[in-house]
Design goal:
Number of domains: 3
Family: Belongs to the protein kinase superfamily. ADCK protein kinase family.
Largest sheet: 7 strands, mixed
Organism: Actinokineospora spheciospongiae
Keywords: ATP-binding, Monooxygenase, Nucleotide-binding, Oxidoreductase, Transferase, Ubiquinone
InterPro entries: ABC1_dom, ADCK3_dom, Atypical_kinase_ADCK, Kinase-like_dom_sf
Strand content: 5-15%
GO molecular function, one term: monooxygenase activity
Number of helices: 19
Distance between the termini: 60 Å
Length: 449
C-alpha cells in the first residue's frame, strides 16, 4: 500500500485537547474576550473613533475568536458552531458579515489530528493489518470536522473510498463542551435570532451518543443508500465497511454546497435549494428516517447535478413518515382558519391545557412561517428570515408573547430544528423555487383529500 502525505503538514496538526480544565478555559475565553473588546471599544470611542468603526472592529475580532476556539476544540464546541452556522442568515446584515465568514468556515474545516494518531485509531478499529485493506491511503485528511476527519483512499478492489476516523477522546470532549456551552448559552443567542439556544444545546447533548457510534451511523447510511439507489436527483454513498470509530464509504467528488452559496449562479442556487428541500421532505416517507444534521458541509452537488448527502450520525426515526398534524396545521395557517388551527394545536399539545391564547394571535404568529407553502414559487432570502427572527424576537410585540406561550412537544422538537436549519440554508442560497409543490407531494395532511 502507498501512503501519501504532504511535506510540512505535521507542523500544523493538533490532536483534540482532552483535559476538561483546558477545554473549559478555552471556552471561557470567548465571553471574557467579548467583555474585553467591549471595554476596549468604549476607550476607542472616547479617543474619537466612530461607533460604526468600533462596532465593526469588535464584531470582526469576536467572530475570529469564535471560529478559532470552536474550530480548534472540535468535539461538542465545533458541533455547536456548525449548528449555529445555518442561522447566520437571520442575523441583521450590519452585524452579520464577520460572523457569516467565521461560522461558514466551521462548516468544513477543523485542525487535523496527526498521522501517527490516526494510524493508531485505524489499527485499534480495523486490526494491525489495516493497511492491507487498501492499495493507497492519503495521510493528509481531505476534510476535518467536529468529531472525526476523512481521508481519501483506494480500497483493495480498486474503488476510491472515504475513510472517516473518529478523534481519540471525542466522547469526553463532547460531554465537557456541551456542559460548558450550556453555562454560556446566553452569549450565543445573538448568533441564532428567533431560536432558543438552551434547547438546541440540550438536543445536541441528547443525540451525542448516537453520533459517536459509527456503526449506527453506517446502518443509517445503508438505509438511505438503499432507498435512494438509482435516484436521478439524490446520491448517498454506499458503505464499504464500518467499525465503532471508523467508517469507510464510497468516495464521491462534488461541489460543496458552501461553494454554491458563495458564488453559484442563480440557477445553480435555485436548483440546490430545490434538491435540498426534496431530500428533506421525501426522506421520512422513503426511508422512515430524517437526516438531522443540516449544514452545508454535509451536502455536495455532483458533476451530473445530483445532491450528494453525507454524515448520517444524527437522524430522527419517523417510521410513519412526517407527522400528518404538521401538514394539517400548515394548511390551516395558509387558509387563514384560525379557530380550527388553534383547536388542532391544543389537541397536539402545542397549546398547553388552560393556556388562554386568542386564535387570531396564534394564526398571526404562524402564518408568516408558512409563506413558502402559500405561493406557487417562493424566494428564500436573508431579509425574509431576518424579518421572521425580528418579529418573534421583539420583546414588545404580540408575536413574542404568543411564541412564549406556545409549547413544542418533544416528538416535534428535532423535526422543527432540522426544518429551521434547512430553511436557514435555503436563505443562504437565496433560492427561488416551488416549495409548495414539494410539501404537497411529501407532507401528509397538507393537500386536502
Amino acid at each position: 500500500m502507498r501512503c501519501r502525505a504532504r511535506r510540512g503538514d505535521n507542523h500544523h496538526v493538533t490532536d483534540m485537547p482532552r483535559k476538561t480544565v483546558a477545554r473549559t478555559a478555552r471556552l471561557a475565553s470567548i465571553p471574557l474576550g467579548v467583555a474585553g473588546r467591549t471595554v476596549g471599544g468604549w476607550g476607542k470611542r472616547l479617543a474619537g473613533q466612530s461607533a460604526e468603526q468600533v462596532s465593526a472592529e469588535v464584531a470582526a475580532r469576536t467572530a475570529e475568536q469564535l471560529f478559532a476556539v470552536l474550530g480548534q476544540l472540535k468535539g461538542g464546541a465545533m458541533k455547536f458552531g456548525q449548528a449555529l452556522s445555518v442561522f447566520e442568515a437571520a442575523i441583521p446584515d450590519e452585524l452579520a458579515e464577520p460572523y457569516r465568514e467565521a461560522l461558514t468556515r466551521l462548516q468544513a474545516a477543523a485542525p487535523p489530528m496527526s498521522a501517527q494518531t490516526m494510524h493508531r485509531v485505524l489499527a485499534q478499529q480495523l486490526g494491525r493489518g489495516w493497511s492491507e485493506r487498501f492499495t493507497e491511503f492519503d495521510d493528509t485528511p481531505a476534510a476535518a470536522a467536529s468529531i472525526g476527519q476523512v481521508h481519501k483512499a483506494v480500497w483493495r478492489d480498486g474503488r476510491q473510498v472515504a475513510v472517516k476516523v473518529q478523534y481519540p477522546g471525542a466522547d469526553e470532549a463532547l460531554r465537557s463542551d456541551l456542559r460548558q456551552l450550556q453555562r454560556f448559552s446566553k452569549l450565543f443567542q445573538p448568533f441564532a435570532p428567533g431560536m432558543e439556544i438552551k434547547p438546541l444545546l440540550q438536543e445536541l447533548a441528547d443525540r451525542m451518543t448516537e453520533e459517536l457510534d459509527y456503526r449506527a451511523e453506517a446502518e443509517n447510511q445503508r438505509a438511505f443508500a438503499k432507498a435512494f439507489a438509482g435516484d436521478e436527483q439524490m446520491l448517498v454513498p454506499r458503505v464499504v465497511a464500518s467499525a465503532p470509530k471508523v467508517t469507510i464509504t464510497e468516495w464521491v467528488d462534488g461541489r460543496p454546497l458552501s461553494s454554491v452559496i458563495k458564488d453559484g449562479t442563480p440557477e445553480e442556487r435555485n436548483e440546490a435549494g430545490r434538491l435540498l428541500s426534496e431530500f428533506h421532505f421525501s426522506s421520512p416517507a422513503r426511508v422512515g428516517l430524517l437526516h438531522s444534521d443540516p449544514h452545508p458541509g454535509n451536502f455536495m452537488i455532483t458533476p451530473d447535478g445530483r445532491l450528494c448527502v453525507i454524515d448520517f450520525g444524527a437522524i430522527a426515526r419517523l417510521p410513519e413518515g412526517l407527522p400528518e398534524p404538521l401538514g394539517v396545521m400548515t394548511r390551516l395557517a395558509v387558509q387563514g382558519k384560525s379557530a380550527e388551527l388553534a383547536t388542532l394545536m391544543r389537541e397536539e399539545h402545542f397549546i398547553r391545557p388552560g393556556m388562554n391564547l386568542e386564535p387570531e394571535d396564534v394564526l398571526a404568529y404562524l402564518a408568516p412561517f408558512t409563506e413558502p407553502a402559500s405561493v406557487e414559487v417562493f424566494h428564500f432570502t436573508r431579509r425574509w428570515m431576518q424579518r421572521q427572527a425580528g418579529r418573534v424576537g421583539d420583546l414588545r410585540g404580540q408575536d413574542f408573547k404568543t411564541g412564549r406561550s406556545l409549547n413544542l412537544p418533544p416528538q416535534y422538537l428535532l423535526i422543527q430544528r432540522v426544518t429551521a436549519g434547512a430553511t436557514g440554508i435555503l436563505c443562504q442560497l437565496d433560492a427561488e423555487f416551488s416549495m409548495r409543490s414539494i410539501i404537497s407531494h411529501w407532507q401528509p395532511g397538507f393537500a386536502e383529500n
